[in-house]
Design goal:
The structure holds 4 protein chains of 4 kinds.
Chain A: H1 8-20, H2 36-60, H3 66-74, H4 76-108, H5 115-132, H6 134-159, H7 177-188, H8 201-204, H9 211-237, H10 239-244, H11 248-254, E1 257-258, E2 262-263, H12 266-296, H13 302-319, H14 323-328, H15 332-370
Antiparallel strand pairs in A: 1-2
Helix pairs in contact in A: 1-6, 1-9, 1-12, 2-7, 2-9, 2-15, 3-4, 4-5, 4-12, 4-13, 5-12, 5-13, 6-12, 9-11, 11-12, 12-13
Chain C: H1 2-15, H2 24-33, E1 42-48, E2 56-62, H3 68-81, H4 90-101, E3 107-110, H5 113-121, E4 124-129, E5 135-139, H6 168-178, E6 184-191, E7 197-204, H7 210-221, H8 231-238, E8 250-252, H9 255-263, E9 267-271, E10 277-280, H10 298-328, H11 335-344, H12 352-371, H13 375-395, H14 401-416, H15 421-456, E11 458-459, E12 462-463
Chain D: H1 2-17, E1 30-41, E2 44-55, E3 62-72, H2 75-81, H3 83-86, E4 89-91, E5 97-101, H4 102-107, H5 110-118, E6 127-131, H6 136-141, H7 150-158, H8 172-180, E7 187-196, E8 199-211, E9 214-219, H9 221-230, E10 238-245, E11 248-268, E12 271-287, H10 297-326, H11 333-340, H12 342-348, H13 352-357, E13 361-371
Parallel strand pairs in D: 1-4, 1-5, 5-6, 6-7, 12-13
Antiparallel strand pairs in D: 1-2, 2-3, 7-8, 8-9, 10-11, 11-12
Helix pairs in contact in D: 11-12
Classes of the chains: A mainly alpha, B mainly alpha, C alpha+beta, D alpha/beta.
Chain lengths: 371, 69, 512, 383
């Protein structure tokens, strides 16, 4: 189980589910309103270079785990510090996602069930999955991705009767600023959360696999899919409803009513949400425990899983105390850490890694002439 | 309730330790520390559901802003 | 391979060698008092060879394990009518007998009692000659065999009507007749300290990977138990994830099934005394495949496969989903339906969860009761169970009518995927419990748990879900759909990693 | 082995942790609300619900509607108060219609809609209706002839909107969308009680006109027909018009077979104009006491011209009504302007009411008779 590796397509499925994860039920790019499809395009264009950087990082470390790569780049103590930061980031994200799901489920279908119960149920599953490792998660997601796609695309196809394309007009009535606001929100959540997958570099990139083939298709597919879902919701609900409800996709799908029989499909949204969210929490916790293990200087991460996973039960309550708070999104600290973790730190790694690598290459090239 | 939570953590920890065959003592120590930290966290949150999220960077930010002005 | 030779050598060494004596009388007495004491089915046929150099001989065999005519025609008669040269003694005498007297091909020479006894109980005739410390064992196995008939568990509409029998060598021959290729390898091991059951490992060299074959060998080698009475014994000893109810080793009664599997790079294990052959590795998709799929048109076959997947979903999920919807999320049921379910449940005294559990249990009892009964009685049970009990329960409003429908769907759909029937029952119970706790989300948690379990399983090093997770067309050609043969260019990746092409280039497009 | 043990342990913890079924409620212990409504009695509101009560057992089960009424400070508290007289958990998600009395609608309909949108278990696909000249309670207590229960009756009437233009159905979400988007006002279908055969029947027809969130007036059945045409929601229905053929006037029944409708804002310097062009495909459903030969093109053209003129007049009257009398943009001219000419909308947005009141509208109607049943000529009666 030490040499974990994941085939490319399974990896792409993992990335897809990770990005779709918990994000699609929320009103993504809420500020942009009817122009959100523009926000999506802008966000995709802005995110792609960064995703490429993540892929490049994976490639530079290939064969090694993230922590090993860090170690080689920065030496012992700085690498441990960075690993600690990433571990915390991943853990916090895991808690937030858990909070999202428990809040969603309570708000939407199980009002009397305490959130702790949902969180515990999730924690147990996640505990199991994380202990099994990345390979199992990838296999899990490659089966589930078929269901998720099938279910959501069917629901969307059925919803086309409700779609009113007029809702997208007028374009850019309120100017570009809301579009950019929406795009930045999309970058932070969920696009650049992909940075966590760099932590699984050695599993996603092997000699046969290229990291780009894992990250890029997964990311693009997920981004376009999210765009489709969000745009369809706007076209169904209208801009105003999209902005004022917590879970617009849920409402949009609830509108489907075909021949009095194909109705009440909103459960489908809950199902996909639960699956994607589960995968996201698992990946977060996997990364958190791997990085924490490195920060504390242990080669194996599995013994850390139980306490970390159990801590998301209180953690989910702690970070997201209510639906409102959860929807408020980034607080000050969150925005700052997100920028640091998603953009600044990977850029630094990338720069350092490239310089080191070119030196190594030069040395190799220089040797024969020297001898 | 608190007793139930603590008991739950004790049971989980006990079972896991029992299932492990041989672990270096450092790992066991770290495991126990983390588990007790989690238990404390849970207990704290049960006592006060509105436990504030610390914002060290937020205060730093405020302080910087003040300094700027 | 040499593993088992070594093992056997060790075994006999441990018991100590009891060499034959030159005196026939001593030998017979020893046998009667030691190895064959208290065994009245062992026959000692004493006779003498022809004068002038008449020698006392004895033919030892187990009654009814051998062909009597064979023994008398090819051993006793030639020996009685031949005279053995006086000057020959010991080993050379035996050589003379095997070469010039006995007219049979399966001849072996032994020098110790254990070998003799092993041969005799396995159906050979053993010949001992006065004044000679060697013996000859002659293959003369002959016992009652069942003829090759159509298997009852896997009957087909179209396809060969052959099924395995209880005889290992017959079974091997059935497989060999499907694959007339010297690359088909058959290795025979003895397993079971008491039963010494013959176990054949069958594979196609060059397709099955070497590691897989070695792994199977080693796992079977490791079995040290008293008895192997059925292939199920072996299955439990060598399977992966022994605690999981999903099968990780397949079994079939059909030679064409085995041939198909080993041609994809699997290894088959045939066990003497049972018509059920094991195939490994076994993946989840195989539970949804039937050998008839490959004989029908590919669209029809794909449709039937899809039906099987749907049925499996129905049989595992219907009670859980029903419970989740009715007790937690009535808003998801169309108005009129929920109104009529509410009406049907009005006077039912039990909560829905009890209803679901009890009815599920009753159904399983009826099924279990019907399975091993003689056919006419079994039908009576199903009539009593289904019609009388069901109808009476509804009209006495002990059970609501929708519940009967749910149980009915569950039961009927369960028969479609018979290979996973026992698994389905357990999953069903799990899903009912989780659904009762958290509604549709509980149901989903159950499903996700099962998926994690399935994703973490392996069968002989091959991921259990492997072809379902490939996400490529060539990888999933034989899963939910069956592509036509001329599109199945490659063998499954995980099974035959080195030698993947199974379709030659010129037949890759449909023949015009 | 240890892995297996761990899994069994996991399962055990799962059951222990999750013991208790918080949201588990038997379906027969829930009281299914089929429809609900609100009457006003200042300062309180009266909440009326129609529930499904099952009678009979097993296969002979039937349903009887039961109407419950309670008064409370707000809709939500009223809804919760109902649990006590009902004696069961009130289950709202199956409610199909929601009735609002005229009085409530006139004071502010938002006070009713707000809790509906907020509530988890009320579906926003419910149909909204306003009672006219009667209270909600009276409507729920009336006896529809064929269907059990007023709510089911109303819901099935509303589904007839494909073949009738007496009313325009409105679901909660669509109405809220109209209220909250710029440049459009909402309408809701009205319910009246009509004496028929000695019984009071609820009938859906006409439309309540809203300005912001207040009801300000009513549209008759005929005016609703025009509104449906202008909103592009007319899909069927009949109307009778006195038609002059060769000097004689007969009432002819026409059938809507389809319509194309286009509104175009046009800007000429500072003057904003709206151009409404409507093309109608009509069928002839019945001719009373006349001898009209529809195979004669001249006759057909003449009839088409008459119908076009009549529709032009009706549309003008209708626009006059909503522009001057009600001053409520229920057709959505403003929204159209916003969508198609955002630059102009930006200028007029702030005083759209005034602009709308004086907005010149060109009406252009083009009628085609495309179908005359199976007869081109009337049945000849001979001696």
């Amino acid at each position: 189980m030490i040499n974990e590796s994941v085939p490319e397509r399974q990896g792409a499925a993992l990335v897809f589910l990770f990005i779709i994860g918990n994000s699609f039920v929320f009103g993504l790019a809420r500020w942009a309103g009817r122009d959100l499809w523009l926000s999506f395009l802008v966000a995709i264009v802005l995110a792609l270079p960064l995703i490429l950087v993540y892929g490049r990082l994976d490639t530079l470390m290939h064969g090694q785990s993230f922590s090993e790569g860090l170690h080689r780049l920065f030496g012992k103590w700085p690498s441990r510090l960075v690993a600690l930061i990433y571990s915390f980031y991943a853990w916090r994200l895991g808690c937030l996602v858990t909070g999202n799901i428990t809040n969603f489920v309570q708000a939407v279908s199980l009002p009397d069930t305490p959130q702790v119960v949902m969180a515990s149920a999730y924690a147990i599953l996640v505990l199991w999955a994380v202990k099994e490792g990345i390979e199992v998660l990838a296999r899990f997601s490659s089966v589930m991705v078929i269901f998720v796609l099938l279910i959501l695309l069917t629901a969307l196809a059925l919803a086309t009767t409700e779609v009113d394309l007029q809702e997208f007009f007028p374009i850019l009535y309120d100017g570009f600023w809301p579009v950019f606001q929406g795009a930045f929100q999309l970058l932070d959540f969920p696009f650049l959360e992909t940075v966590l997958l760099v932590g699984l570099a050695n599993a996603l990139t092997t000699k046969k696999n290229s990291a780009y083939k894992v990250l890029i298709p997964g990311f693009l597919l997920a981004a376009f899919f999210l765009m489709l879902v969000a745009s369809a919701s706007v076209a169904i609900l209208g801009e105003e409803m999209y902005k004022i409800t917590f879970f617009p996709v849920f409402l949009a799908i609830a509108r489907i009513d075909i021949a009095l029989f194909l109705t009440r499909l909103e459960v489908v949204v809950g199902v996909t949400f639960a699956i994607g969210g589960f995968l996201k929490i698992s990946v977060c916790l996997l990364v958190a425990s791997k990085n924490l293990a490195h920060a504390l200087g242990f080669p194996d991460y599995r013994f850390l899983v139980t306490p970390l996973v159990l801590s998301i039960i209180p953690g989910s309550q702690w970070f997201a105390k209510s639906v409102m708070e959860m929807n408020l999104g980034a607080t000050k600290i969150a925005a700052f850490t997100d920028v640091m973790v998603q953009i600044v730190l990977p850029m630094i790694f990338w720069g350092v890694a490239e310089i080191r690598m070119s030196r190594v290459r030069k040395n190799k090239a220089g040797k024969p002439s020297g001898i | 309730m608190l007793i139930v939570i603590v008991l739950g953590y004790v049971v989980v920890g006990g079972v896991e330790l029992f299932l492990w065959k041989e672990r270096p003592w450092q790992e066991v120590l770290v495991y126990l520390l983390l588990l007790s930290a989690t238990a404390t966290f849970s207990v704290l949150l049960t006592i006060d559901a509105q436990l504030p999220v610390p914002e060290p960077l937020g205060t730093l930010w405020n302080w910087l802003q003040k300094l700027w002005q | 391979m040499f593993f088992w030779k070594k093992a056997k050598g060790e075994r006999s060494k441990a018991k100590g060698l009891d060499r034959l004596s030159t005196s026939l009388e001593i030998n017979v007495k020893w046998l009667k008092s030691n190895l064959f004491a208290d065994d009245d089915t062992i026959v000692y046929r004493h006779f003498r060879t022809k004068e002038p150099q008449a020698r006392q001989c004895v033919l030892i065999h187990a009654d009814n394990m051998t062909k009597h005519e064979f023994l008398s025609d090819y051993i006793v008669r030639p020996m009685m009518s031949s005279s053995l040269p006086k000057e020959l003694q010991g080993r050379r005498l035996i050589q003379h007998i095997t070469e010039q007297v006995i007219q049979s091909d399966g001849v072996a020479v032994f020098t110790d009692y254990n070998k003799l006894a092993e041969g005799v109980v396995a159906g050979s005739g053993a010949v001992l000659v006065e004044g000679c410390n060697h013996g000859i064992s002659v293959d003369a196995q002959g016992w009652e065999r069942r003829s090759v008939t159509e298997p009852q568990t896997e009957s087909v509409v179209r396809g060969p009507r052959q099924g395995f029998t209880e005889d290992l060598l017959v079974n091997v021959s059935l497989v060999r007749r499907k694959i007339l290729n010297p690359a088909l390898k058959v290795k025979i091991l003895d397993v079971g300290l008491q039963t010494r059951t013959k176990v054949a490992i069958v594979y196609v060299e060059g397709i099955a990977s070497k590691e897989l074959v070695d792994e199977v060998f080693q796992r079977i080698e490791r079995i040290e138990t008293d008895a192997i009475l059925e292939s199920g014994y072996i299955e439990e000893f060598i399977r992966d994830s022994p605690n999981c109810p999903f099968p990780t080793i397949g079994h079939t009664e059909r030679p064409d099934g085995v041939a198909g599997k080993i041609l994809e790079g699997r290894v088959a294990v045939l066990v003497d005394g049972t018509p059920f052959a094991l195939t490994m590795p076994y993946l989840l998709v195989e539970a949804f495949q039937a050998n008839e799929d490959y004989y029908h048109h590919w669209i029809a076959a794909s449709f039937h496969r899809t039906l099987r997947y749907i049925s499996f979903f129905l049989t595992t999920s219907t009670p859980g989903l029903y419970l989740a919807l009715v007790t937690h999320h009535p808003q998801l049921i169309p108005v009129n339906l929920s109104v009529s379910i509410a009406a049907a449940r009005k006077n039912v005294p039990f909560p829905a969860i009890v209803e679901v559990m009890v009815m599920g249990l009753v159904f399983e009892i009826l099924r279990e009761g019907g399975v091993r009964l003689p056919k006419p009685v079994g039908q009576a049970i199903s009539i009593v169970g289904a019609i009388v009990l069901g109808d009476a329960a509804v009209s006495a409003s002990l059970v609501s009518a929708p519940m009967i429908i749910v149980v009915g769907i569950t039961g009927v759909a369960g028969f479609v995927v018979s290979k996973l029937n026992d698994t389905a029952v357990l999953i069903r119970i799990l899903l009912v419990v989780t659904s009762a706790i958290l509604g549709i989300y509980g149901f989903l948690f159950g499903i996700m748990g099962i998926m994690i379990q399935l994703a973490s399983m392996e069968s002989f090093g091959v991921p259990y879900l492997s072809s379902l997770t490939s996400l490529t067309i060539q990888g999933s050609k034989d899963t939910i759909v069956r592509l036509p043969w001329w599109r199945m260019v490659l063998r499954p990746r995980h099974l035959a990693a080195k030698n993947r092409e199974r379709l030659q280039r010129k037949s890759r497009s449909k023949t015009k | 082995m240890k892995k297996g043990l761990a899994r069994i342990f996991l399962l055990c913890t799962m059951t222990i942790v999750t013991t208790g079924c918080w949201d588990y409620t038997e379906i027969e212990l829930r009281d299914l609300v089929m429809g609900a409504g609100v009457d006003a009695e200042d300062p309180k509101v009266i909440v009326i619900t129609e529930m499904a009560k099952s009678i009979g057992v097993g296969q002979e089960a039937e349903f009887e509607p039961v109407v419950l009424t309670t008064d409370a400070r707000s809709l939500t508290s009223g809804a919760h108060n109902l649990a006590n007289p009902a004696g069961m958990e009130i289950f709202w998600a199956h409610a199909q219609v929601f009735l609002v009395s005229e009085e409530v609608a006139r004071s502010s309909i938002l006070q009713v809609l707000e809790p509906i949108v907020r509530a988890r278990d009320l579906r926003s696909t419910m149909y909204l209706l306003v009672t006219k000249d009667c209270t909600v309670e009276e409507v729920f207590k009336s006896k529809p002839p064929l269907v059990d229960g007023v709510s089911r009756h109303l819901a099935s009437v509303i589904r007839l909107s494909d073949v009738t233009t007496d009313f325009i159905p409105q679901q909660v979400w669509r109405f809220i969308g109209d209220l909250s988007s710029p440049g459009i006002s909402g309408t809701l279908p009205g319910v009246e009680l009509v004496h028929e055969g000695g019984a009071l029947l609820p009938v859906v027809r006409g439309a309540a006109v809203f300005k912001l969130d207040r009801l300000i007036g009513w549209l008759s059945k005929e005016e609703t027909q025009i509104l449906a045409l202008l909103k592009g929601e007319s899909e069927g229905g009949f109307f009778v018009m006195d038609t002059e053929v060769k000097g004689n006037t007969f009432p002819i029944t026409y059938e809507f077979r389809g319509s194309q409708f286009q509104t175009k804002p046009s800007v000429d310097g500072e003057n904003l104009r709206m151009k409404v062009s409507l093309s109608l495909q009509l069928g002839v459903a019945g001719v009373k006491g006349a001898d009209v030969d529809f195979s004669d093109l001249a006759v057909v053209n003449d009839i088409e011209g008459q119908v076009s003129r009549s529709f032009t007049r009706r549309i003008r009257d209708f626009l006059g009504l909503i522009q001057e009398d009600y001053n409520s943009d229920i057709v959505g001219f403003g929204q159209l302007l916003w969508r198609q000419e955002p630059a102009i909308w930006r200028k007029v947005e702030s005083d759209w009411d005034a602009v709308f009141r004086d907005l010149p509208v060109d009406v252009d109607v083009d009628c085609r008779i495309s179908f005359t049943g199976f007869h081109a000529q009337p049945i000849k009666v001979r001696n």
